[in-house]
Design goal:
By secondary structure, the protein is an alpha/beta fold. It has nine helices and six strands. The protein folds into two domains: 145 residues, Rossmann fold (3-Layer(aba) Sandwich), CATH 3.40.50; 43 residues, no CATH class. α5 runs parallel beside α6. The chain is elongated. The two termini are 36 Å apart.
Length: 220
């Protein structure tokens, strides 16, 4: 079950709410994905959207048959029709809408990471403890859904790796193709600097490298 469905199911079981109005804070790629999935949930009766770029909010609202509050996140959270909130902003913008929604007693689903500093993470945990609110984080929901891991973390560390990720410049795809084409027999390459830094891309590059060394006819 996807995270937005779990938030919807939580609200649906609440004695205070029979209809679910979903607020989407941030209408980029992930916000759009969440909104489209939520639009197919039977319990979701309305979707209200905001984004730093009001045009993006209008576009997503039109896509899912919802309403837009332009760039006003608080207007979405304070909207009487909104009973649950998904925060899918850029990482540095998570804190304010999360706290605002929790203070108003509205369940929240936030994309990972929950915060960029320990101070912000502690502020969120303190608000949860004080309000008794509900918060779901995309990573934890993925672990529960995919692997059945239901235990809660006993500790946390928020760390930003500055300048630690590969930077892909113009022509990167051709550069990597030339690299692979020039490899001598018996040598393969793998890693996040090749085809992408996400886990699936890294696993795929490792699988491709291993196959090129063990299976005849497979290109490195």
């Amino acid at each position: 079950m996807n995270g937005e469905h779990q938030v919807a199911d939580h609200v649906a079981k609440s004695p205070r709410a029979r209809e679910i109005g979903l607020g989407i804070i941030g209408s980029g790629r992930i916000g759009t994905l969440r909104a489209r999935l939520a639009a197919g949930h039977a319990a979701v009766t309305s979707i209200t959207v905001s984004d730093l770029d009001p045009a993006n909010a209008e576009k997503l609202a039109g896509l899912v048959g919802g309403r837009s509050h332009g760039a006003d996140n608080l207007a979405v959270i304070d909207d009487p029709a909104v009973t649950a909130v998904i925060v899918s902003t850029s990482e540095g913008e998570h804190l304010a809408p999360m706290l605002a929604a929790l203070e108003r007693g509205k369940p929240v689903l936030v994309e990972k990471p929950i915060a960029l500093t320990l101070q912000h993470a502690d502020a969120i945990l303190g608000t949860l403890a004080r309000t008794g609110g509900t918060l779901r984080v995309g990573t934890l929901e993925d672990l529960r859904t995919l692997f059945g891991i239901t235990t809660e973390p006993v500790d946390h560390l928020v760390q930003r790796w500055i300048d630690a990720m590969p930077q892909y410049g113009p022509g990167h795809i051709d550069l990597i193709a030339d690299l692979r084409a020039g490899l001598p027999a018996g040598l393969a390459v793998a890693g996040g600097y090749l085809d992408g830094i996400g886990v699936p891309a890294c696993v795929a590059s490792g699988t491709r490298a291993a196959a090129s060394l063990t299976m005849p006819g497979v290109a490195p």
